[in-house]
Design brief:
two-stranded antiparallel ribbon, 2 helices, 7 strands, about 15% helix, binds FE2/S2 (inorganic) cluster
Length: about 100
Amino acid sequence: MANEYRIFVANKSREYLCRHGQNILSSSIEQGVRVIKRGCLGGGCGFCKIRVEAGQYELGKVSIKALPAEERKEGFVLACKTVPLSDLVIRISGD
Ligand code: FES
């Protein structure tokens, strides 16, 4: 199992590393890659919604209002509750 994963932000041409077990929002903040909107940091507001285009991940408990089931099926996640299990390619929503 890798100690860290590479997170490539496709529509911003940015890349950063995320430690194993860390969520992809906090790792981006830690590394000063401020491309994902932040809000509650607890899976409730939906500000950090992004789409995963490639890779494996685990999504923690999130508000169904912030992330409806249909959006999950399309690959949308809440970055503050998403932990990578492989390198990921993500896309920032709204761009
Ligand atoms: S920051 Fe509020 S759901 Fe992620």
